[in-house]
Specification:
single chain; binds zinc ion; 196 residues
């Protein structure tokens, strides 16, 4: 068996990325072929640095180069409020709204019976373990079927603990994703969150 040629290998690797089909992968690979060597080096270095230098915060699961992360270690942040999100990349759009000054908890996914993802596959236990001193939990899972199911599940778990549990007031498109919601809409969703 011979190794496939470098171009075919690059196309193959790029096509594994989410949202990239063979056609786009081929276009990107040919682009890399054309750019100066240092540009290709910068890309490959950036890929490896992400793997070598970043990890999940041991408290909130945000992506970080230091543990605890900059949110968890920031004395200015409101420690009585936790915003629960599905993925680490949901933090940035919420930060950009300027409406939220509390801490985060990243579940690392959402409940999905179809894909066999139950509470044990998510950071639910870790959430329950860090509720000391927390008075409000904002459920900011995505406004789609899985995100809603996750929010309902967590609301039921949290209610008996006498914590105010709220959900983003979605003017956000149903079936949508927090990452694709514009700042103004997302900011309003946070400001107008309703108690569950
Ligand atoms: Zn953290």
């Amino acid at each position: 068996m011979s190794t496939p040629d470098p171009l075919a290998r690059l196309v193959g690797e790029l096509a594994r990325l989410p949202g990239i089909g063979t056609k786009t992968a081929t276009r990107l690979a040919h682009h890399v072929l054309r750019v100066p060597r240092q540009e290709a080096e910068a890309l490959s270095r950036a890929l490896l640095d992400v793997k070598d230098q970043l990890f999940h915060c041991s408290t909130c699961n945000a992506i970080t180069a230091v543990d605890p992360c900059r949110f968890c270690s920031d004395p200015e942040r409101d420690r009585t409020s936790l915003c629960v999100i599905e993925e680490p990349f949901n933090i940035a759009p919420i930060e950009r709204t300027g409406e939220y000054r509390g801490l985060y908890h990243v579940l690392l996914g959402a409940l999905s019976p179809q894909r066999g993802i139950g509470p044990d596959q998510l950071a639910v236990g870790a959430l329950l373990d860090r509720l000391d001193g927390v008075t409000e939990v904002i459920l900011a899972t995505n406004p789609n079927v899985e995100g809603e199911a996750t929010a309902l599940y967590l609301a039921r778990l949290l209610k008996p603990r006498e914590i105010k549990v709220s959900r983003l007031a979605f003017g956000m498109p149903v079936g949508g994703d927090i990452e694709y919601t514009d700042e103004v809409t997302l900011g309003r969703s946070i400001a107008g969150r309703r108690e569950l």
